[in-house]
Automatic annotation (TrEMBL):
Keywords: Lipid-binding, Signal, Transport. This is Non-specific lipid-transfer protein. One of its GO terms (molecular function) is lipid binding. It comes from Artemisia annua (Sweet wormwood). Plant non-specific lipid-transfer proteins transfer phospholipids as well as galactolipids across membranes. May play a role in wax or cutin deposition in the cell walls of expanding epidermal cells and certain secretory tissues. Residues 1-27 form the signal peptide. PANTHER family: NON-SPECIFIC LIPID-TRANSFER PROTEIN 2-RELATED. GO terms for biological process: lipid transport. Residues 31-115 form the Bifunctional inhibitor/plant lipid transfer protein/seed storage helical domain. It holds the Pfam family Tryp_alpha_amyl. Belongs to the plant LTP family. The keyword Transmembrane helix does not apply.
């Protein structure tokens, strides 16, 4: 495996393990679903440039479709917030990801977002 592939794989494993311990809200969406959807974005969010890869946008669109209720959006937000902290994602790339993929999540992907304020 290439170094970047190994790094991405390790990042996904670490995030997945961390998210096992993140309590979810009462929404139908789970952190494992969120991570599965955005896992193609890991390399891009850490060190990408330009537009996200198509697989990343496909996953982001699936996440947006799955996060249809307030509880789902709050759960997805908490999962992404934890993941962005542990991955040390580029804040600008994370913030611009939904717009670059042509979707709206209803919240900003940031380690500083207050997920309880999402409606």
């Amino acid at each position: 495996m290439k170094g970047s592939s190994v790094t991405a794989l390790l990042a996904i494993i670490v995030v997945s393990l961390i998210l096992l311990f993140v309590p979810s809200s009462h929404g139908a969406i789970s952190c494992s679903t969120v991570i599965k959807d955005v896992s193609p974005c890991v390399s891009y969010l850490k060190s990408g440039s330009g537009m996200p890869p198509s697989a990343c946008c496909t996953g982001a669109k699936a996440l947006a479709a799955a996060a249809s209720t307030t509880a789902d959006r709050q759960t997805a937000c908490g999962c992404l917030k934890s993941a962005s902290k542990s991955l040390n994602a580029n804040p600008s790339l994370a913030k611009s990801l939904p717009g670059n993929c042509g979707i709206s999540l209803g919240f900003t992907i940031s380690p500083n977002v207050d997920c309880t304020k999402i409606t």
